[in-house]
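User: Sequence in, structure out. Go.
Assistant: Echoing your sequence, followed by the structure tokens.
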Amino acid sequence: TDPEVSTRKKTFAEVQTERLDQAERTVLIKCPSKLNEKKLLQYLSSHGNVKSHFFFENRGINALIEFSEKSSIASLQDAVGIPSASEHHVVPFKSRLFTFTLKNPVSQRVEETPLHLSPQCHIPVKDLIEKLCLADSISSQMYIVLNEHQLTEENIKLRFLACSLVRDFTCAYFPDSTVKPFGSSVNMFGKLGSDVDMFLDFCDTGKQATKMKKGPFEMEYQMKRLPSERLATQRILSVIGDCLDNFGPGCANVQKILNARCPLVKFSHQPTGFQCDLSVSNSIAIRSSELLYIYGCLDSRVRALVFTVRCWARVHGLTNSAPGTWITNFSLTMMVMFFLQRRSPPIIPTLDQLKELADEKDKHIIGGYDCSFVSDLRKIKPTKNTETLDVLLCEFFEYFGNFDFRRNSLNLRKGKEVNKPESSPLYIWNPFEQDLNISKNVNQPQLEKFIAMARESAWILQKEDKTQQMINKEPWGLAALLIPFGKSNSSKMKNRMKGIGSETIRSLLDSLKLNNANSQQKAVGK
């Protein structure tokens, strides 16, 4: 790669291009449990240089092998046999998924060194809390949460490979199509174990249109015409879904959900172990992914705070992987971004500020919405804010525990609290489609639960005596926030709960008195 690129933070597009290219040169091999790593690599090297590899556990041992040259894959495919059809008849689709077996395992069991397996899921909360108790500050606890949950280099490679393997099918129909991940797989806020959102892109259609404008004549493809883009999307996804279902090695539980607002195909990709959602190009979703990528790159505190708040929300049942009336991870992430824009001085810029820095190549108008913002991270001035994560976590809970949700909404374009345009309990403006509320699904009880938990957490962090808790070997700092409140046996927690309860009741009584006084005044005024 270009040395200039490798010394600076790469742009979102550069990272995507590099990863997609990497995935094209990659194969996945199911290995026997007793494997001699050296022998396998020796065999593979006869087809070309192996640039990188790792092993992981998923229904047995698997190896992801990245070659330096794409031609090595063709060479390997030429040497690979087709499984014998003794019990089942096979669908003769030759993919980049292979099974490696030893012909006579006994003679080959030499100098077995245990394989290093890359973890593909995060540790349970119980183990996490134990690790957190050993840290020396809330900041370092938050970085532990980030390190335990964030996507690893290996997991990201596996995600791009899953997309690349789906692309092998779409290319049969649309040779210049690409399949790219979007959302949490690429925006730097993905958690180990999360689904892979991928979309099918026909990136050349726009470029094609400009090609023929020069010269005295015009030439264009004859293509099937359909009454709407939606119908075209449904037809394409229906056929690709059938392909994966009928011919895709390891593609199981394929569901075509074509009448959804955004038609998609859901399937489970067993070789990589991912649940996948495939849709057709959604440019605005890509812009959201890039915006979060930029925010995540600007300051290391951004990701540490987001991962911590999301972990906290999950433990307390504020978020849920099933759709419903609770706050989504995306909404929660946007709440953290808004909070960071509101700090003094701000830790991240507003979207309008990023738009002012955009040049010609950053201009994106999608479906009438202006989605332009700067892509070169060097143009964004670093923040002068030096607050620690200890302070930021407590302030986050304080800020939203006392936010006037009844009157105000969160606008990330302006970085301001603005009057709510309609009465949804929680209103977070979609940064691009300005007439949409990304948290429209959240109901009043869920918002109230969030507010109560935020207040309680701020209270715990402020009242805490860290040294005493460490001496007593009690969970402290972030660890104390990750124990479901009221579930702990420690008398301290019970006392806290009493405090919280009586405070909450007192504030409710106060507000009742206030309301009462107001209604009496109104009555007098009539």
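User: And one key feature?
Assistant: The longest helix spans residues 491-525.
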